[in-house]
Amino acid sequence: MTSGGASAPSTALRGILGAALVLAGYLFAMLVVFRDTLASGFDLGFGDRMDAMIEMTILEHWRSVFLGAATWNQPLYFHPYADTLGYNDGYFLSGLIYSAWRLGFEPFLSDTLTAFTFRTLGYVATLWLVRGVLRWSWGLTVLIATLATISNGMFLHAGHAQINTLALLPLVAGLATLTVRAEIAGRPRARLLAVATAAVIGVWLVSAFYFAWFTLYFSLVLLLCWLGVTGRWRPAAIAALVRAHGRTLATFALAFTVAVIPFLFVYVAKRVESGGHGFMISYLVQPTDLVNVGEANLLWGWLVQGLRIAVHAVAPPDGRLARALLGGEHESGFPLLLFALACAALVRLVARRGDTGFARVFALAILISWALTLRIWQVSPWLLVHFLVPGASGLRVVLRYQLFLVLPVLLLIGIAWRAQLAQLWQRRPWIAGAIVALLLAEQVNLAQPARLSRSAQHAALDTIPAPPPGCSAFYIVSTRPGAPLYRDARLDALYPHNVDAMFLAERWRVPTINGFSTFTPPDWNFAAPLAPDYDARVRAYAQRHGLTGLCRLDMRAAQPWSRG
Predict the structure, then answer these.
(1) Peptide bond between residue 80 and the one before it cis (omega within 30 degrees of 0)
(2) 450 beta partners
(3) DSSP string covering 44-80, please?
(4) Do residues 395 and 277 lie in contact, with contact meaning Cβ atoms separated by under 8 Å?
C-alpha cells in the first residue's frame, strides 16, 4: 500500500515535469524563431515584399475560394490564362490556416500567424512521432522537437513559406510507421492508416511541391535500401511481398492516386507548357554547403566569414566562385557539432555489415539520398535523378533537400546515440547538459529573415485607389514612386510592379495581366515597366488575347488610372 501510494505521486510528478519540459521547449523555440516579430510588436513578418507577397497573394486567393468568390485553380494574375495556380506552389494548406486567421486579422499579420501555426504544428507533430510513436524518452523527445523547430537553415530561409510545410514531415513519418506496424501485426487498421498517409501527401503536394517531392524521393531511396539490405530485391521476393501485403498496398496505391488528382490537374499541363527546370548544377550541394550555416550563426558564423574572405581573396565578390559557394540558398548546412554527430552515426550504423535492421537501412537512405545531391565543381550524380525520377525536373534549388533532412538527421543521431546520452546524463550530467546546450546554441542565428513590415506595406498600398468602373482587367506601371531599388536592376525590373499587381488584384477582385512566379506564361513580357516600349508590349498582348476594358495604373500621375 505504501508502495502504491508512493507510486502515484511519483507518476504525477513525472507527468508535471514532462509537461513543464514540453512547454519550456516550445516557448524557447518560439522565442528564437519569432524574436524579431515579437520585438517589433508583430510588425515584421518573414520574407520581403517580393516572395512573401507572392505567397500572400495565393493565400488571399484561397480565402476567396473558401468564401465562394473564386475558382480554386484560378488566381487573378497572368490574366487571361487559365489554371494560373500551376505556375507556383499551391499553398493549399497554408491558405486554409491563413483563411482562419483572416477572420480576425488583416493579411500581413495573418501571414505571420500562419507561420506561427505551422511551427506549432511541427513541434507538436514531432513530439507525437518521437514520444508517441517511437517511444523515446521525454527529454530526448523535447530536444529533437526543439532543435527541429529552431533549425538554423529553416530559420534563415523562413522567407520561403514552403518551408513551413515541413511541419507535415513528422506526421507523414508517424502515420507511415504506424501503417507498417499494423500491417505486420495483421490489423485491418493498417489500410485506414495507409489512406491517411496518402491523403496527407496529396495535400502536401498541392501545398508545397518541393518538400512533398523530397518526402517521396527519400521514401523511394529508403525502400530500395530496405530491399537491398534485407535481400528482398529479387523479383520472386518482391512478388511474395506483394502477395502477403497486397490489400494494404492496393489501398495505399488507390488512395494516393485519388489524393494526387488535384496536384496533377493543376501542374501537369503547366509542366508540359513550361518544360520544367533544366538541370541546374549551381543549386546543388557543394561540400562547403554541408556546414554552411551563414555568417550570423551564433557559434559557427566565423567559419563562413572565413570562407567568404578566402573566396574574395582569389575571385571577384560577384563572380562565379562567390555565387557557387556563398550566401542565399547555400546557407542550408548543418551546425558543426550536429554534423559531426550525424557523420559518426552514419559510420557507426552503416559499418554494421550483415545487419538487416531498420537503423542501418535508415542510415543508408540518408547517406545515399544526400550524396546524390552533391556536386564537385561541374560533376554531380543528381543528373541521374533529374532525368530518371518523375518530378525531379520540377526542382530548381536541390540545396533545400538539406532542410528536409533536418528531422531525419536528428532521428538518426537519436537512433545511434540516445543510449549513450542517457548514460552520460546519469553519470556526468554536467557534460550531458553542456552537449545539449551546445546543440541548442549552435542552431541560433542572429540574422533577421523577418523583414516585411506590415505598417510600411499598408502605408504604400492603402493609398492606391481601386480601379474605376468599367475596368475588367488592369496592368501596373508604377505603384510606389521613389521606392529604393530592389536588390539590383534586373530584379527591380521584374518584381516590384508585378508583385504589387498580383496582391492588389486579389484585394480588388479584378484580374491583372501582370504577375511573376516560378514559371510564367509563354508570351509574358511585362518586365521593365518604365521602358519606352512597355505600353506597346501591353497593347500587343491585349490584342493577341482579345482583352477589352484594360486599365493602366501609374501612381506617378495626377490621375493614376487611365485606359490601357
Answers:
(1) yes
(2) 47
(3) EESB-TTHHHHHHHHHHHHHHHHTTSS-TT--SSSTT
(4) yes
**Closest Cα partner for 526 from 465, 453, 468, 477?**
477
Locate all alpha helices (DSSP H) within 473-547, ordered by sequence. 489-494, 496-508, 534-545
Residue 43 sits at φ, ψ, to 5 deg, of: -85, -35
- Dihedral angle, C-alpha 178, 182, 185, 187, nearest 10 °: 160
Q: Is 412 helix (H, G, I), strand (E, B) or coil?
A: helix
Residue type at 447 in one-letter notation: A
The closest of 448, 177, 108, 428 to 294, measured between CA atoms, is 448
Cell 554541408, residue? 290
Q: Which residues of 18-42 are buried (b: 16+ CB within 10 A; e: fewer)?
A: beebbeebbeebbebbbebbeeeeb
Task: Please report which helix (H) or strand (E) contains residue 173, including its range.
Answer: helix 169-184
The CA distance from 56 to 137, in Å, is 39
Given the DSSP bridges, would you call strands 452-453 and 44-45 parallel, antiparallel or unpaired? antiparallel
Assigned C-alpha cell, 421: 546520452
Evaluated on CA atoms 84, 90, 96, 99, the torsion sign reads: negative
Tens place of pLDDT for every residue, the chain, 564 residues?
344 455 666 778 887 888 999 999 999 999 999 999 999 999 999 999 889 999 999 999 999 999 999 999 999 999 999 999 999 999 999 999 999 999 999 999 999 999 999 999 999 999 999 999 999 999 999 999 999 999 999 999 999 999 999 999 999 999 999 999 999 999 999 999 999 999 999 999 999 999 999 999 999 999 999 999 999 999 999 999 999 999 999 999 999 999 999 999 999 888 888 777 777 888 999 999 999 999 999 999 999 999 999 999 998 888 888 888 898 899 999 999 999 999 999 999 999 988 899 999 999 999 999 999 999 988 999 999 999 999 998 899 999 999 999 999 999 999 999 999 999 999 999 999 999 999 999 999 999 999 999 999 999 999 999 999 999 999 999 999 988 989 889 999 999 999 999 999 999 999 999 999 988 999 999 999 999 999 999 999 999 999 999 999 999 999 999 987
How many CB atoms lie under 10 A from the CB of residue 321?
Answer: 13
User: 97, 114 in Cβ contact below 8 A?
Assistant: yes
Residues in the chain: 564
Distance (Å, rounded) from C-alpha 159 to C-alpha 450? 7
For every residue of 311-339, DSSP letters joined together read HHHHS-TTSHHHHHHSSGGG-----HHHH
C-alpha cell at 350: 552503416
Q: Give residues with Cβ within 8 angstroms of 101, minimum separation 6.
A: 109, 110, 113, 114, 117
φ, ψ at 454 (rounded to 5°) = -70, -30
